[in-house]
Amino acid sequence: MRKNVVAGNWKMNTTLQEGVKLAEDVNEALKNVDAKCDVVICVPFTHLASVNAVIDPAKLGLGAENCADHVKGAYTGEISAPMVASTGATYVILGHSERRQYYGETSETLKEKVNLALANNLTPIFCIGEVLEQRENGSYLEVVKSQIEEALFELSAEDFSKLILAYEPVWAIGTGKTATDDQAQEMHAFIRGVIADKYGKEVADNTSILYGGSCKPSNAKALFAKPDVDGGLIGGAALEAESFMGIVTAF
Ligand code: 13P
After folding, report:
1. With a threshold of 0.70, does the pTM exceed it?
2. 133 among known catalytic residues
3. Neighbours of 46 (CB within 10 A)
4. Residue 176 above 90 pLDDT?
5. Burial tier of 246 (Cβ tally within 10 Å: 0-12, 13-18, 19+)
6. Separation of CA 237 and ligand 1 centre (Å)
Protein backbone atom coordinates (compact mmCIF):
# COMPACT_ATOMS: atom_id res chain seq x y z
CA MET A 1 0.00 0.00 0.00
CA ARG A 2 1.13 3.56 -0.64
CA LYS A 3 3.21 5.50 1.84
CA ASN A 4 2.32 8.69 3.62
CA VAL A 5 5.01 11.31 3.10
CA VAL A 6 5.66 14.76 4.50
CA ALA A 7 8.38 16.57 2.54
CA GLY A 8 9.78 20.03 3.16
CA ASN A 9 10.73 22.24 0.24
CA TRP A 10 13.06 24.88 1.57
CA LYS A 11 13.15 26.73 -1.77
CA MET A 12 15.81 29.48 -1.85
CA ASN A 13 16.00 29.94 1.90
CA THR A 14 18.67 29.53 4.59
CA THR A 15 22.42 29.99 4.40
CA LEU A 16 24.46 26.80 4.64
CA GLN A 17 24.91 27.27 8.38
CA GLU A 18 21.22 28.02 8.97
CA GLY A 19 20.25 25.04 6.83
CA VAL A 20 22.50 22.59 8.68
CA LYS A 21 21.07 23.85 11.98
CA LEU A 22 17.48 23.43 10.74
CA ALA A 23 18.25 19.90 9.51
CA GLU A 24 19.82 19.05 12.88
CA ASP A 25 16.74 20.39 14.67
CA VAL A 26 14.36 18.32 12.53
CA ASN A 27 16.57 15.24 12.92
CA GLU A 28 16.63 15.70 16.69
CA ALA A 29 12.87 16.25 16.92
CA LEU A 30 12.24 13.05 14.95
CA LYS A 31 14.04 11.02 17.62
CA ASN A 32 11.22 11.82 20.02
CA VAL A 33 8.25 10.99 17.84
CA ASP A 34 6.93 7.85 16.24
CA ALA A 35 6.30 9.38 12.82
CA LYS A 36 3.44 7.72 10.91
CA CYS A 37 4.87 8.93 7.60
CA ASP A 38 8.13 9.15 5.71
CA VAL A 39 9.77 12.50 6.38
CA VAL A 40 11.93 14.22 3.77
CA ILE A 41 13.67 17.59 3.50
CA CYS A 42 14.48 19.03 0.08
CA VAL A 43 17.19 21.63 0.41
CA PRO A 44 19.34 23.91 -1.78
CA PHE A 45 22.09 22.14 -3.76
CA THR A 46 24.79 23.90 -1.72
CA HIS A 47 23.47 22.30 1.47
CA LEU A 48 23.02 18.70 0.36
CA ALA A 49 26.33 17.11 1.36
CA SER A 50 26.56 18.97 4.67
CA VAL A 51 22.96 18.19 5.60
CA ASN A 52 23.47 14.55 4.64
CA ALA A 53 26.31 14.38 7.17
CA VAL A 54 24.10 15.41 10.11
CA ILE A 55 20.88 13.44 9.57
CA ASP A 56 19.87 9.86 10.26
CA PRO A 57 18.82 8.50 6.84
CA ALA A 58 16.65 5.87 8.53
CA LYS A 59 14.43 8.66 9.90
CA LEU A 60 14.87 11.59 7.57
CA GLY A 61 15.16 11.50 3.78
CA LEU A 62 17.09 14.09 1.82
CA GLY A 63 16.31 15.57 -1.56
CA ALA A 64 17.24 18.32 -4.01
CA GLU A 65 14.79 20.87 -5.38
CA ASN A 66 15.64 20.36 -9.05
CA CYS A 67 18.16 18.70 -11.34
CA ALA A 68 19.39 19.28 -14.88
CA ASP A 69 17.87 17.78 -18.02
CA HIS A 70 21.33 16.66 -19.17
CA VAL A 71 23.61 14.13 -17.57
CA LYS A 72 26.87 16.11 -17.84
CA GLY A 73 28.83 18.54 -19.97
CA ALA A 74 28.93 22.20 -20.95
CA TYR A 75 25.87 23.47 -19.07
CA THR A 76 27.35 26.17 -16.85
CA GLY A 77 25.60 26.48 -13.52
CA GLU A 78 23.50 23.33 -13.81
CA ILE A 79 23.51 20.42 -11.34
CA SER A 80 23.00 16.92 -12.72
CA ALA A 81 21.09 13.99 -11.26
CA PRO A 82 24.35 12.01 -10.70
CA MET A 83 25.77 15.00 -8.82
CA VAL A 84 22.69 15.14 -6.60
CA ALA A 85 22.88 11.40 -5.97
CA SER A 86 26.58 11.64 -5.12
CA THR A 87 25.75 13.86 -2.11
CA GLY A 88 23.67 11.09 -0.54
CA ALA A 89 20.32 12.61 -1.50
CA THR A 90 17.66 10.14 -2.64
CA TYR A 91 14.79 12.45 -3.68
CA VAL A 92 14.42 15.32 -6.11
CA ILE A 93 11.53 17.74 -6.59
CA LEU A 94 10.78 18.14 -10.30
CA GLY A 95 8.39 20.43 -12.13
CA HIS A 96 7.65 22.76 -9.24
CA SER A 97 5.39 25.57 -10.44
CA GLU A 98 8.11 28.12 -9.61
CA ARG A 99 10.45 26.27 -12.02
CA ARG A 100 7.74 26.13 -14.68
CA GLN A 101 6.75 29.77 -14.17
CA TYR A 102 10.10 31.55 -13.69
CA TYR A 103 12.53 29.25 -15.50
CA GLY A 104 10.45 28.11 -18.44
CA GLU A 105 10.38 24.41 -17.63
CA THR A 106 8.19 22.47 -20.01
CA SER A 107 6.84 18.94 -20.09
CA GLU A 108 9.58 18.11 -22.63
CA THR A 109 12.45 19.10 -20.32
CA LEU A 110 10.69 17.54 -17.35
CA LYS A 111 10.47 14.24 -19.15
CA GLU A 112 14.27 14.24 -19.45
CA LYS A 113 14.71 15.23 -15.83
CA VAL A 114 12.43 12.43 -14.65
CA ASN A 115 14.34 9.88 -16.73
CA LEU A 116 17.70 11.06 -15.39
CA ALA A 117 16.47 11.14 -11.81
CA LEU A 118 15.18 7.57 -12.08
CA ALA A 119 18.37 6.40 -13.80
CA ASN A 120 20.28 7.71 -10.79
CA ASN A 121 18.03 6.13 -8.18
CA LEU A 122 16.48 9.41 -7.13
CA THR A 123 12.77 9.41 -6.27
CA PRO A 124 11.13 12.27 -8.16
CA ILE A 125 8.55 14.31 -6.27
CA PHE A 126 6.76 15.48 -9.38
CA CYS A 127 4.67 18.63 -9.03
CA ILE A 128 1.50 19.50 -10.91
CA GLY A 129 -1.16 22.13 -10.38
CA GLU A 130 -3.30 24.79 -11.98
CA VAL A 131 -3.14 28.58 -11.78
CA LEU A 132 -6.01 30.67 -10.39
CA GLU A 133 -7.50 31.47 -13.79
CA GLN A 134 -7.72 27.75 -14.61
CA ARG A 135 -9.33 27.04 -11.24
CA GLU A 136 -11.88 29.77 -11.87
CA ASN A 137 -12.69 28.90 -15.48
CA GLY A 138 -13.20 25.26 -14.54
CA SER A 139 -10.36 23.81 -16.65
CA TYR A 140 -8.25 22.75 -13.62
CA LEU A 141 -8.85 19.02 -13.91
CA GLU A 142 -7.92 18.97 -17.60
CA VAL A 143 -4.84 21.11 -16.97
CA VAL A 144 -3.48 18.74 -14.35
CA LYS A 145 -4.34 15.71 -16.47
CA SER A 146 -2.32 17.18 -19.36
CA GLN A 147 0.65 17.93 -17.11
CA ILE A 148 0.72 14.29 -16.01
CA GLU A 149 0.15 12.82 -19.48
CA GLU A 150 2.73 15.01 -21.22
CA ALA A 151 5.62 14.49 -18.82
CA LEU A 152 5.02 11.05 -17.34
CA PHE A 153 2.94 8.78 -19.53
CA GLU A 154 5.85 7.49 -21.60
CA LEU A 155 7.21 5.82 -18.46
CA SER A 156 6.82 2.09 -17.99
CA ALA A 157 4.47 1.04 -15.19
CA GLU A 158 7.53 -0.06 -13.22
CA ASP A 159 9.14 3.37 -13.49
CA PHE A 160 5.90 5.25 -12.89
CA SER A 161 5.54 3.30 -9.63
CA LYS A 162 8.75 4.92 -8.36
CA LEU A 163 7.29 8.45 -8.46
CA ILE A 164 5.69 10.56 -5.79
CA LEU A 165 3.24 13.16 -7.11
CA ALA A 166 2.54 16.49 -5.47
CA TYR A 167 -0.60 18.45 -6.31
CA GLU A 168 0.16 22.09 -5.68
CA PRO A 169 -2.50 24.55 -6.82
CA VAL A 170 -0.42 27.60 -7.78
CA TRP A 171 -2.96 29.96 -6.23
CA ALA A 172 -2.38 28.33 -2.83
CA ILE A 173 1.43 28.48 -2.82
CA GLY A 174 2.82 31.01 -0.38
CA THR A 175 -0.48 32.88 -0.38
CA GLY A 176 -1.89 31.63 2.90
CA LYS A 177 -4.89 30.49 0.84
CA THR A 178 -5.11 26.71 1.21
CA ALA A 179 -7.26 24.52 -0.97
CA THR A 180 -10.09 23.19 1.15
CA ASP A 181 -9.78 19.54 2.08
CA ASP A 182 -12.67 18.83 -0.30
CA GLN A 183 -10.95 20.64 -3.17
CA ALA A 184 -7.77 18.67 -2.48
CA GLN A 185 -9.68 15.39 -2.27
CA GLU A 186 -11.52 16.08 -5.54
CA MET A 187 -8.25 16.65 -7.38
CA HIS A 188 -6.33 13.81 -5.72
CA ALA A 189 -9.10 11.31 -6.51
CA PHE A 190 -9.18 12.61 -10.09
CA ILE A 191 -5.39 12.20 -10.41
CA ARG A 192 -5.61 8.66 -9.07
CA GLY A 193 -8.27 7.92 -11.68
CA VAL A 194 -6.06 9.29 -14.47
CA ILE A 195 -3.25 7.02 -13.30
CA ALA A 196 -5.60 4.03 -13.03
CA ASP A 197 -6.84 4.56 -16.60
CA LYS A 198 -3.28 4.41 -17.90
CA TYR A 199 -1.45 2.02 -15.56
CA GLY A 200 -4.23 0.15 -13.77
CA LYS A 201 -5.76 0.31 -10.31
CA GLU A 202 -2.86 -1.31 -8.49
CA VAL A 203 -0.30 1.24 -9.66
CA ALA A 204 -2.78 4.06 -8.93
CA ASP A 205 -3.52 2.77 -5.43
CA ASN A 206 0.19 2.52 -4.70
CA THR A 207 1.06 6.06 -5.82
CA SER A 208 1.57 8.61 -3.05
CA ILE A 209 -0.08 11.92 -3.93
CA LEU A 210 0.93 14.83 -1.69
CA TYR A 211 -0.84 18.15 -1.29
CA GLY A 212 1.15 21.41 -1.30
CA GLY A 213 0.13 25.02 -0.86
CA SER A 214 -0.03 26.86 2.48
CA CYS A 215 -0.15 23.58 4.38
CA LYS A 216 0.48 24.20 8.07
CA PRO A 217 -0.02 22.46 11.43
CA SER A 218 -3.51 23.96 11.77
CA ASN A 219 -4.86 22.54 8.49
CA ALA A 220 -2.70 19.45 7.92
CA LYS A 221 -4.87 17.07 9.93
CA ALA A 222 -8.03 17.77 7.95
CA LEU A 223 -6.16 17.55 4.63
CA PHE A 224 -4.38 14.32 5.54
CA ALA A 225 -7.64 12.78 6.74
CA LYS A 226 -8.90 12.75 3.16
CA PRO A 227 -8.61 9.28 1.63
CA ASP A 228 -6.58 10.32 -1.42
CA VAL A 229 -4.29 12.84 0.30
CA ASP A 230 -1.14 10.95 1.24
CA GLY A 231 0.82 13.76 2.83
CA GLY A 232 2.19 17.17 2.04
CA LEU A 233 4.89 19.14 0.27
CA ILE A 234 5.57 21.98 2.62
CA GLY A 235 7.14 25.34 1.83
CA GLY A 236 7.06 28.13 4.42
CA ALA A 237 6.08 25.90 7.34
CA ALA A 238 9.12 23.67 6.69
CA LEU A 239 11.50 26.48 7.57
CA GLU A 240 11.07 26.00 11.32
CA ALA A 241 11.48 22.60 12.94
CA GLU A 242 8.50 23.15 15.23
CA SER A 243 5.95 23.95 12.52
CA PHE A 244 7.34 21.23 10.24
CA MET A 245 7.02 18.69 13.04
CA GLY A 246 3.49 19.95 13.70
CA ILE A 247 2.66 18.78 10.18
CA VAL A 248 4.62 15.50 10.43
CA THR A 249 2.65 14.60 13.55
CA ALA A 250 -0.69 15.41 11.90
CA PHE A 251 -0.73 11.75 10.79
P1 13P B 1 3.97 27.02 0.85
O2 13P B 1 3.79 25.90 1.82
O3 13P B 1 4.92 28.08 1.33
O4 13P B 1 2.68 27.57 0.35
O5 13P B 1 4.72 26.39 -0.44
C6 13P B 1 4.22 25.22 -0.98
C7 13P B 1 5.20 24.72 -1.97
O8 13P B 1 5.40 25.32 -3.01
C9 13P B 1 5.94 23.50 -1.65
O10 13P B 1 6.62 23.03 -2.76
Report:
1. yes
2. no
3. 13
4. no
5. middle
6. 8
